[in-house]
Design goal:
Number of strands: 11
CATH class of the largest domain: Alpha Beta
Structural class: alpha/beta
Order of helices and strands: EEEHEEHEEHEEHHEHEHHHH
Radius of gyration: 19 Å
CATH architecture of the largest domain: Alpha-Beta Complex
CATH superfamily of the largest domain: 2-enoyl-CoA Hydratase, Chain A, domain 1
CATH topology of the largest domain: 2-enoyl-CoA Hydratase, Chain A, domain 1
Largest sheet: 7 strands, mixed
Shape: globular
Helix content: 40-55%
Distance between the termini: 16 Å
Strand order of the largest sheet: 1-2-3-4-6-8-11
Length: about 260
C-alpha cells in the first residue's frame, strides 16, 4: 500500500503498510470530542473498513492525552444529552462494532469519560507509562455513556466495572493490564511498539478475525444451540477463504504463512 496522508482541523489520517492510523488533533483541548470530530471519525472508519488494502485501524491522540471525553463547550445550546449521544456517539459505536477491520486503540495518555468508552470499544488496547483511564462521569452527576457500561463489564467483570464507573479512580497502564482492560504494555519506544503491533494484526487472516469477533459477541447473547450453529457457519466461511488455503500450505511446507486478508 502506498503511503497516504489526509488531514482535517481535528484528525490526521495516515495509510501505510496496510494500516490506517487515525490521530485526534486537538491537543490543546486534550483531544476532547466535538460533533464534527465524531462524525468525521465515523466516516473515516467506514471508508477504511471498505478498503481491502486496510487490514488494521489504529486510533490514537496527539499530545499528552488520548481523549478527555466530550467537549461540553462544543455542544449546541438547544441539544440535550440523549440527542448528543444518538446523533454523534451511537452511529460511531455501531460502525465500530460492525467493522470487519480490527480496531486498535493506542492509548498514549489520558482516556477519560467518552474517551475511555471509545478505547474499550476497540478490539485491542495498547498502553504505556503515560496511559491513564478514568470514567469521570459521576464526578459531574452523569452516568457512563458511549457504550461504557456495555463493554466495561465484559472486560473486567460486573463488580469491578461498577467500581471503575463510580469511584472514578485513575487506572494506570500497568493496572489496566492487570485488570485485563488493556492488551499490551509497551515499555520502550511507543510509536515503534504501536506500529509493530498494528503490523502483526494486519498480517493476520482478516476474515478469521472478523468471524471470531462475530462469534464472541454472538456467544454472549445466544443460547448454546444457536451458538453452535453460528460457529459451524462461521467455520464454513473461514474454510473457504484463500487465507485458510495459505495457512494449510504454509503448515505443510513448514514456513510462515503470508496471509492476504482474502
Amino acid at each position: 500500500m502506498n503511503n497516504e496522508t489526509k488531514t482535517t482541523d481535528e484528525l490526521l489520517v495516515q495509510l501505510r503498510e496496510n494500516v490506517c492510523y487515525v490521530t485526534f488533533q486537538r491537543p490543546t483541548y486534550y483531544n476532547a470530542f466535538t460533533p464534527s470530530l465524531l462524525q468525521s471519525l465515523t466516516s473515516i472508519i467506514e471508508d477504511a473498513d471498505r478498503n481491502d488494502q486496510v487490514r488494521a485501524i489504529v486510533i490514537t491522540g496527539a499530545g499528552k492525552a488520548f481523549c478527555s471525553g466530550q467537549d461540553l463547550k462544543a455542544m449546541k445550546s438547544e441539544e440535550t444529552y440523549d440527542q448528543l449521544l444518538e446523533n454523534n456517539y451511537h452511529p460511531l459505536l455501531r460502525v465500530m462494532r460492525a467493522a470487519n477491520t480490527p480496531l486498535i486503540a493506542a492509548v498514549n495518555g489520558t482516556a477519560a469519560g467518552a474517551g475511555m468508552s471509545l478505547a474499550i470499544a476497540c478490539d485491542y488496547r495498547l498502553v504505556q507509562a503515560n496511559t491513564t483511564f478514568i470514567s469521570a462521569f459521576t464526578n459531574i452527576g452523569l452516568v457512563p455513556d458511549a457504550g461504557m457500561m456495555y463493554d466495561l463489564p465484559r472486560l473486567v467483570g460486573s463488580a469491578k466495572a461498577f467500581e471503575i464507573a463510580t469511584l472514578n479512580e485513575k487506572i494506570s497502564g500497568e493496572q489496566a493490564i492487570a485488570l485485563h482492560l488493556a492488551t499490551r504494555y509497551i515499555h520502550d519506544d511507543w510509536h515503534e511498539g504501536v506500529e509493530q503491533f498494528a503490523k502483526r494484526i494486519a498480517a493476520m487472516p482478516t476474515e478469521a478475525l472478523r468471524l471470531t469477533k462475530e462469534l464472541l459477541f454472538g456467544g454472549l447473547q445466544e443460547d448454546y444451540e444457536t451458538y453452535l450453529n453460528h460457529e459451524a457457519r462461521a467455520q464454513l466461511k473461514a474454510g473457504n477463504t484463500s487465507d485458510h488455503k495459505e495457512g494449510l500450505y504454509a503448515f505443510k511446507e513448514k514456513r510462515t504463512p503470508q496471509f492476504t486478508g482474502l
